[in-house]
Design brief:
By secondary structure, this protein is of the alpha+beta class. The protein has helices spanning about 1-20, 30-40, 45-50, 60-70, and strands at about 50, 75-90, 95-105, 110-120, 120-125. Helix 1 (about 1-20) packs across helix 2 (about 30-40). The longest helix has 20 residues, at about 1-20.
Length: about 130
């Protein structure tokens, strides 16, 4: 029974990754899902690609900080976008997405990811990130 549950879980993860990998931030929720999937898979450089980063930022230092932060929590075990949790501003240039993240150490966090529209693509706002 444990093997079947593991197989089902693996298929769910594969489905989630394949469904989300084709979308490049068409909606704020797409970007949030892609970011969290990358984070969950330990693909920190890809996760950071969903942020609107200034060119002057040192990518390797950011990857190191993100990796360190995730290791403290034993990684991201699972996440869920809160139903109805996507809010787009009236001008259509900023948005928030509410998420619930469960970490490997058992911590559960409810966060609001802040995004902005950059070249017709939704990006996480490095200045606001999540609060």
């Amino acid at each position: 029974m444990k093997k079947i549950a593991s197989l089902i879980m693996a298929l769910c993860v594969i489905s989630l990754v394949s469904c989300s990998s084709g979308s490049k931030g068409k909606t704020p929720s797409d970007t949030a899902k892609n970011y969290l999937t990358s984070l969950q898979s330990g693909k920190y450089e890809k996760a950071l690609s969903y942020y609107d980063l200034p060119e002057a930022m040192e990518m390797q230092a950011l990857i190191g900080k993100l990796e360190e932060s995730e290791k403290k929590k034993d990684g991201l075990k699972s996440f869920k976008l809160v139903e109805g949790g996507e809010k787009i501003s009236e001008d259509g240039l900023t948005a928030t997405v509410a998420v619930i993240m469960t970490h490997g150490n058992g911590d559960v966090e409810e966060e609001t990811l802040h995004l902005k529209k950059v070249d017709d693509e939704w990006k996480l706002d490095i200045n606001l990130g999540s609060k």
